[in-house]
Amino acid sequence: VPKSGDRLSALGFGCMRLPSKGRSVDEERAIRQIRHAIDSGVNYFDTAPVYHFGKSEQVLAKALAGGYREKVRIATKLPHWEVFEREDMDRILNGQLAILQTDHIDYYLLHSLAGKSFQIMKDLGVLEFLDSAKKDGRIIHAGFSSHGSLEDFKMIVDAYAWDFCQIQYNYLDEKIQAGTEGLKYAAAKGLAVMIMEPLRGGNLAGRIPGSFEKIWAESTVKRSPAEWGLRWVWDHPEVTVVLSGMNDEAHIDENIR
Fold first, then answer.
1. 3-state helix/strand/coil string of the chain
2. What band does 64 get if pLDDT is binned at 50, 70 and 90?
3. Average pLDDT for 217-227
4. Is residue 199 within 8 Å of residue 242, measured between CB atoms?
5. Which residue from 105, 159, 183, 255 has the least number of CB within 10 angstroms?
């Protein structure tokens, strides 16, 4: 991380698609997977209140019990759609600290900002909130995630002394949302850039058009579609962490490898 020197694993564990059991999370399996990933060197775990209807933060907390919390960085998010006044920000953050059973969030994001939502949050005092939460140690790094336009993204980057940001990026999305231009823009400003949807929700790991396969067949190195997709993102020096929403043991091991 450029501004702090914090060392993060190239692969981050996205906790939005944990293994399921019926209509809920398969907690035992998820905890096993998370701990295995940590034992294998993964140290960045990304969650949010909305993931698995609140279960994601709870399961992550259980997985990090027994000495695992000290080995990782937790990233979670402030849902702007649940904020109506300044007090809501502290209430939500304090609730997350309790759920995650920790006294600090390592990487705290304003969730899914675009121009309008950022303006509303700014007017409610969110930048002062981030300052005070950093000052009192409840959060260490402040950032935001965005699925908005490049124009909105640049405006938000310039509006505050962010430590990091999170964008959707993969080989289909070079010119969609923040895209390559946004990636380079944020990195040039000293922000760490976390990548979500590197495989477009798994779509770039499944059935691939024949034209892609033809190009890959020309390579002397043989790789799975998922590996080609992840390596493409990792090959950008501006990228800090690539998040993968992992829920299958074989996929977790392949991504780690």
1. CCCCCCCCCCEEEECCCCCEECCEECHHHHHHHHHHHHHCCCCEEECCCCHHHHHHHHHHHHHCCCCCHHHCEEEEEECHHHCCCHHHHHHHHHHHHHHCCCCCEEEEEECCCCHHHHHHHHHCCHHHHHHHHHHCCCEEEEEEEECCCHHHHHHHHHCCCCCEEEEECCCCCCCCCCHHHHHHHHHHCCCEEEEECCCCCCCCCCCCCHHHHHHHHCCCCCCCHHHHHHHHHHCCCCCCEEEECCCCHHHHHHHHC
2. very high
3. 95
4. no
5. 159
C-alpha 249, offset from chain centre: 20
Residue 169 to residues 38, 96, 186, Cα–Cα distance (Å): 24, 27, 13
- The pLDDT tens digits of the residues spanning 68-108 come to 999 999 999 999 999 999 999 999 999 999 999 999 999 99
- Measured between alpha carbons, how far is 54 from 59 in angstroms, rounded to an integer? 9
> What pLDDT is recorded for position 206?
87
State the first-to-last Cα distance of the chain, in angstroms, to the nearest integer: 22
State how far the Cα of 90 lies from the Cα of 248, in Å rounded to an integer.
Answer: 35
- 207: confidence class by pLDDT, cuts 50, 70, 90: confident
Contacts with 105 (C-beta within 8 Å, 6 or more apart), sequence order: 74, 75, 76, 93, 96, 97, 138, 139, 140
In angstroms, the CA 100 to CA 205 distance is: 31
- Tell me the C-alpha distance between 2 and 8, whole Å: 11
- Counting every residue, how long is the chain? 257
